[in-house]
Amino acid sequence: MKPFLLQSRPEADAAQNEYEAMCKYGRLEPQQLKRLAMNRGELGSINLDGYSGIILGGGPANVTDPPEVKAKRTYEPRLYELLRELLTATTLFWAPASAWAC
Question: CA of 57: how far to CAs of 1, 34, 89, in Å?
Answer without folding.
Answer: 19, 12, 20
